[in-house]
Amino acid sequence: MNRTQPARVLLDPTSERQLAIRSRVQRLRTLAGKTVGLLDISKPRGNVFLDQLEGRLRERGANTIRFVKPTFTKPAPVDLRHEIATRCDAVIEALAD
Amino acid sequence: MDSLPLLPSGLVAFVKRECPTCTLVAPVLARLAAEAALTVFSQDDPSFPAGTRIVDDRSLDFSWHHGIEAVPTLLRVRDGEILGRAVGWHRGEWEQVTGLSGLGIELPEWRPACGSLSVDPDRQAELLVRFAGSKLHARRVELAALEDEHEAMFERGWSDGLPMVPPTEARVMRMLQGTSRAPDEVVAVVAPDLVECTVEKVAINAVMAGCKPEYLPVVLAAVEAACTEQFNVHGVLATTMPVGPVIIVNGPIRRAIGMNSGMNVFGQGNRANLAIGRALQLVVRNVGGGRPGEVDRATHGNPGKIAFCFAEDEEGSPWTPLSADFGAAPGTSTVVLFTGEGPRCIVDQQSRDPESLARSLAASLRTLHHAKLVIAFDCLLAIGPEHARVFREAGWTKDAVIARLTELLQIPGSELVHGAGGIAEGIPEHLAGATLPKFRPNGLRIVHCGGKAGLFSMMIGGWASGAIGSEPVMKEIRP
């Protein structure tokens, strides 16, 4: 069928998501008095890594809140993401093994 | 282009000059033009037939929209409504439609019609685009004059690394003929970007993968299954383990679309097997945004992540099909999606009794992913026809085979704990006194496939099983 008319218009196979430019949240100037969320993704020994980080953060005057994802294999539930976003100034997500 | 162009009132004929019956009845049409209100729509020659009022329908606009399948077709129309119809030449029918007598006395009583150009198979794709293409919503990507269309697809990141069929409107429209579902119907929300994916988007990716339209229902079912919470394609993609979706097809559609369940079943050479497997992967890549090096973090991956789809050999099987284990009714066409690595061969050319063969299979199954790891990983065991024969002749049902393998795969914890065998990998020391099964309940599944010669079976290792990882999912294939 394309012998005479070569394929010149193709249909986009992608999600066509608009790449809207999103500005980054303002970086924290200091950790003192800020709340940092520590998200354990439920990989083995993620808690060990986060314990170390938590100590360092507190030395610098930050408050910390610990969160845990139900499983590392799936995205964090919407409610958990919302809780982190509303309660924390920053978040650190731990990968381990 | 979708609006119906109205037919004039009176008599209406659709003809083409290349049709012998049309040329035969040309004098009759000339008489009708003289004696009654006749309009002729000519599909190939606007000067034919002489002596009539002719509408040039070389665009086939009228023929397409009024569903003309054969020429000559004679209609009697009033205010757009068709009151009478004759197809081909049959004197009695023409006299009935026209209300005139003595038509074409010199002609034979009856002559057959020819196919209308509006249903010419060679022109279907072009006509679908012209008259129905506006149904498609996908963004049009216009290629520059000097752009090679194959290179353009690579450059846009659409390819899995192999060349693809360019998804033109004509090809996508033809692909959509393979399903009764509407192009804008949402099939699933595809991870990792969690994007709604329409039938049209699946069709576009199916074209690129090399599918025929009749494969599309299988691809749609596979996309539905992959995007369930249970199957968890997000995790399957993101894991560092070398797994991907494995599609097993059961039911009548296997034969209808020519899938391979026999010789070289996991190998190259069968279009349906490979194109369907590839189409699912392209949907995940292009619609879901799951690309290697991004969300796909596989350490090694495996070649099955290009395409891994096959049919079960149900006809040669001593057992019920895999789909029945998931509750499918007999005769139903289904896909089962299993998260699997590449297939690995189990050789046993000596066992002629089922107990020996079961022990042989169990010895190999124990090594799946690691001989000291248990319960965490499922297995799809593809038993070849020559191994299945040993069980068949001994009267072992599929349940009996699984039950015996499960017994043989109860492993003392002392062999599995950290340090046992001088190997750090293993399970916690406190389980040393326990006996543990290699597989969780229902973690071992059996499918029958492969060539008739060769005393082999194949095992396909799974991934983190159950709710924390991936569960196998069955979906019915809808037309």
Question: SSE layout and pairings?
Answer:
The complex is a heterodimer of chains A (97) and B (479).
Chain A lengths: L8 E3 L23 E6 L5 H14 L3 E6 L9 H10 L2 E5 L3
Parallel strand pairs in A: 2-3, 2-4
Chain B lengths: L9 E6 L4 H5 L1 H10 L2 E5 L10 E4 L4 H5 L4 E2 L1 E6 L2 E7 L1 E2 H8 L11 E2 L2 E2 L8 H9 L7 E3 L6 H7 L13 H8 L9 E5 L4 E4 H11 L6 H11 L6 H6 L5 E7 L2 H4 L14 H16 L22 E3 L10 H4 L8 E7 L2 E5 L6 H12 L11 E7 L1 H9 L4 H11 L1 E3 L22 E3 L6 E5 L7 E9 L8 E4 L3
Helix pairs in contact in B: 5-7, 7-8, 8-9, 8-12, 9-12, 14-16
Short description:
By secondary structure, chain A is of the alpha/beta class. In chain A, 25% of the residues lie in helices and 21% in strands.
Key features of this structure:
heterodimer; A: 97 residues; alpha/beta; 3-stranded parallel beta sheet; B: 479 residues; alpha+beta; Glutaredoxin; 2 domains; 5-stranded mixed beta sheet
